[in-house]
Design brief:
Blueprint (H helix, E strand, L loop, with lengths): L1 H10 L1 H10 L5 H24 L3 H24 L17 H17 L12 H18 L7 H6 L5 H9 L11 E7 L4 H15 L8 E6 L6 H7 L5 E5 L1 H8 L5 E6 L2 E6 L6
Parallel strand pairs: 1-2, 2-3
Antiparallel strand pairs: 1-4, 4-5
Helix pairs in contact: 1-3, 2-3, 2-9, 3-6, 4-5
């Protein structure tokens, strides 16, 4: 279970790190690192149990980790949080109550194995040092934190300026967007990365780490009620408008989300999901 959970989280690392950051308890870079440390810890713990070279320490580590997870889920439940806990990344959605039950079942199963004796091994230190180091190195190599590559990502964050100005002149983008300082977010309501960027932007603004300018969303597609979308993501956006998909894709060069910081109509900053910080 621990090995599967670590692999599932790693394969959907974007949603897991945003889940960690959304609690607002740490800076973005720390959320990136904490998410990967937890994945490496779960992978190591699972391998440690399977190797059975230190049965009692592994047993206690597993029980303590499950207890900590369960306590956190209980707090989330009583706080009214019913979102997926990301225990298995994006592969299996479990709300806090379902995940609490899952943890209790595994704690019972783990309890049954308490009397298991360790395999006899002449040298145990490689398991204790090399395996956790290998797990952490593998996680960081497979999925380096975004904050290690902001400059690289920034080079690929593009805005089709001519299409943007043409959409403005044809009134697809209203003039209120260009009055004073605004944050203009090009979102698709069906895009997972757009949703995660909205959560990231909302958390950054709550922590005072991003512009406090009003947020306006330019939504590609047919008109619909977007209020629920912004309530769900927590982004303080009360103003949005819709753009035909063909124009939306020309402006963003087919990549979304695109977040622009505008001042009196001039683009002073532009971000994609990866380099938003």
């Amino acid at each position: 279970m621990f090995v599967f959970a670590s692999i599932a989280k790693l394969l959907s690392i974007d949603s897991f790190e945003i889940y960690v950051f959304s609690f607002g308890m740490m800076p973005l870079w720390a959320a990136f690192l904490s998410a990967r440390l937890l994945i490496a810890l779960e992978a190591f713990l699972g391998i440690w149990m399977l190797a059975n070279c230190d049965a009692k320490p592994a047993w206690w580590a597993g029980m303590i980790l499950l207890a900590i997870f369960t306590l956190r889920l209980i707090i989330l439940h009583f706080a009214g949080n019913s979102e997926s806990c990301n225990c298995f990344g994006g592969f299996i959605d479990l709300d806090p109550v379902q995940s609490i039950v899952k943890n209790l079942v595994f704690m019972v199963v783990l309890g049954i194995s308490y009397g298991c004796e360790s395999f006899r091994m002449k040298r145990k230190w490689p398991w204790r040092i090399l395996v956790p180091a290998a797990c952490l190195a593998a996680v960081l190599i497979i999925s380096p934190p975004d904050n290690w590559r902001y400059e690289g990502y920034g080079k690929y964050t593009t805005l089709n300026t001519s299409a943007f100005e043409k959409a403005r002149s044809r009134k697809y983008i209203p003039e209120r967007v260009f009055d004073g300082e605004k944050i203009l977010c090009f979102y698709s309501l069906k895009c997972d990365f757009c949703r995660m960027s909205a959560i990231k932007l909302a958390t950054l603004r709550k922590r005072g780490e991003f512009s406090e300018a009003p947020v306006i969303a330019a939504i590609g597609g047919k008109e619909r009620d977007a209020a629920y979308y912004f309530r769900e993501t927590g982004l303080d956006c009360s103003d949005w408008f819709f753009i035909p998909p063909s124009i939306f894709f020309r402006i963003t060069n087919g990549e979304m989300p695109l977040i622009l910081v505008l001042k009196d109509g001039m683009v002073i900053e532009k971000y994609s999901y990866r380099d938003l910080h």
